Structures are given as structure tokens and as C-alpha cells.
Amino acid sequence: MALAVGIRGLTRSLLRPWVRVPGPARGRTEPAAGGGDGVRCFGSPRVLVEPDPAAGFAVMKMRNPPVNSLSLEFLTELLISLEKLESDKAFHAIILTSDCPGIFSAGLDLMEMCGRDPTHYAEYWKAVQELWLRFYLSHLVVISAINGVNAAGGCLLALSCDYRVLADNPKYAMGLNETLLGIIAPFWFKDTLVNTVGHRTAERALQLGLLFPPAEALQVGMVDKVVPEDQVLSAARSELAQWLAIPGHARQLTKSLMRKPTADRLLKERDADIQNFVRFISRDAIQKALRVYLEKLKQKKT
Ligand SMILES: CCCCCCCCCCCCC/C=C/C(=O)SCCNC(=O)CCNC(=O)[C@H](O)C(C)(C)COP(=O)(O)OP(=O)(O)OC[C@H]1O[C@@H](n2cnc3c(N)ncnc32)[C@H](O)[C@@H]1OP(=O)(O)O
């Protein structure tokens, strides 16, 4: 099995990043995220970036409708956006949010894990690992403004941020619900949750596949703040001020000190983790469970 799949190679072949965005932002100057100083939005088909270099941050909006499921292309575009902002000294922070009404993210794209071949599963999982590692260890301050339901892999992405603001809407539940699909959260998903909410809460949440509505998410520490829906972005911006007031090198080193041991566990056994994933996801019983789950999602509509 070819494990040496290169996301950068994929990136080059699939995307032309940093084209002016299609859709709503095309051809006009969007107000910048914080200052409205005429800085242009940029991005890729599935990720809209609203930069505010004067204020030192950018708002990164996920827009992979209908549910921001984390397909291989979408993961790649998120990585490119992150890399671009990380390599520009004007930016010290990102606010990650969604452009899809009512949905932050439905998690990993089930179509990437169902009915494909082992090479594809390996390539996909490597991209999932990469996204987590890059967000988890980013030297930028990353705050998620969670404006919708947020399941499994989407929740992992939010848990990788430094601070989480959740919109107060009972429909916007979030959690690592893998067991409800008959699959399991890998150890680094688990570690990220444990680091956020503690061992006991994580154990119960993972075994039961709990999706926490806002009040409960706040109570267990899965999110840091719950605010009225129309204030999620402004609350994230206000919070940023506190993080950006800290000397950057001190904050970054402290973040690394806190997070490196967790990331190192995966870095040390990345290929083995990919092989475990491929073996697990290729099992007939797991493929069947995913198909049944997808079917249930579709039947819900009828
Ligand atoms: C021995 C041990 C070894 C262990 C080794 C480790 C192995 C590791 C194991 C594997 C680990 C995998 C980790 C997986 C992580 C994940 O993230 S799995 C995904 C989990 N996500 C969910 O459960 C959410 C599913 N979706 C929903 O609940 C709902 O869609 C929603 C988000 C609440 C939105 O609802 P609504 O607005 O009503 O939209 P829908 O009509 O339901 O959906 C619209 C269309 O989108 C499709 N869709 C939804 N979610 C996904 C998805 N995650 N992936 C792909 N597609 C999705 C849905 O089917 C609809 O499609 P159409 O019917 O074609 O329109």
C-alpha cells in the first residue's frame, strides 16, 4: 500500500489557491474582518479568508455545502489557507467559522471512507492527520466561532483551536459521536478531547458518542463561551484581544509546551496509525455500518 502520499503534491495538482474567490465575494471589495479597510478577501473554492492585516488576524470561513464535510479537497484547501496565513508575518491569529447556515461541520466526509480502495483511505487519513497536526500546533492563535452543529471530525477541528465560542442554539450540538456510527475515535482524537474536558468526561462522551448542546458543552468545558447566535463572531474577536496582548514568543512556546507531547504521540507512529485506519475502515462490518448510517441520513428527509 502506498503510504507515502503527498498532500502537497495533491495540492498542486488539484488547486490553484489564492485565486480571488468565486461567489458572493467576487469582483467586489469585502469589508475586512475587523477593520473594513478595503483589504480583499481571498481563498479557494471551499475556504473564504477575510483578512484584517491591520488588526493582525483573518476570519477563515468554511464553505463546503451542504454540511462542511471534510472531504480530501476541503482538507487540502483548509491546510493551504492555514499555511498561507502562517507564513505571512502580518497575521497572528485566525477565527475559524462556517459559511454554511446552521452547520459548523458534519465531520469527516463519509464518502471518503466508504466504498473506496486502501490507497485512497491511506491518502485521506494522512490528510486528516495533517490537518489536525497543523491546526493543533499552529503558532497562530486560533479561535473557533462555532455557528452550527459540529460532529466528530469537525468537533476535533474546533478542539484543536485555542478557544471556542459556541452559538446558543439548542440544535448546535457538538461532540465526538463516532461510536454512534459504529466506528471509534482514534487515540489522538481521544487525547485532544481528554486535554480539553478531562478523562472522566471524555470517557463517557466517547463511549456514548455524546453530542453536547451548548449549555452542556459549556458546563463540561468543551467550549469556553456560549453567546447569542448573532454575537459569535464579535465574541471571538473580543476574546482575541486578550490573546494578542501576550508577547507572541512566550505564548507560542507555552502552547508548544502544552501540546507537543500529544502531537508527538501521533508523529511517532503516523504510518502505523494510517495502516490501522486502513485496516479498520476496510473491514466489511465497518463498511456496512457506514452505509447504513449514510442511508439513515438520507431517509431522515423522506
Ligand atoms: C482495533 C482498533 C484499531 C483502531 C484504529 C483506529 C481506526 C479509526 C477509525 C475511524 C475513525 C474515523 C473518525 C471519523 C470521524 C468523523 O467525523 S465521521 C462523521 C461523523 N459525522 C456525523 O455523524 C454527522 C452526520 N451528519 C448529520 O448528522 C447531519 O447531516 C447534520 C450535520 C446534523 C446536518 O443535518 P441536515 O442539515 O438535516 O442535513 P442532511 O440532510 O443530514 O445532510 C445533507 C447531505 O449531506 C450528507 N452528509 C451529512 N453528513 C455527512 C458526512 N459526514 N459525510 C458525507 N456526507 C454527509 C447527507 O447524507 C446529505 O446528503 P444527500 O442526501 O445526498 O443530500
UniProtKB/TrEMBL annotation:
It is found in: Mitochondrion matrix. Gene3D superfamilies: 2-enoyl-CoA Hydratase, Chain A, domain 1 (3.90.226.10), 6.10.250.170. It comes from the Eukaryota. GO terms for molecular function: delta(3)-delta(2)-enoyl-CoA isomerase activity. Pfam families: ECH_1. GO terms for cellular component: mitochondrial matrix. Homotrimer. Key enzyme of fatty acid beta-oxidation. Able to isomerize both 3-cis (3Z) and 3-trans (3E) double bonds into the 2-trans (2E) form in a range of enoyl-CoA species, with a preference for (3Z)-enoyl-CoAs over (3E)-enoyl-CoAs. The catalytic efficiency of this enzyme is not affected by the fatty acyl chain length. This is Enoyl-CoA delta isomerase 1, mitochondrial.
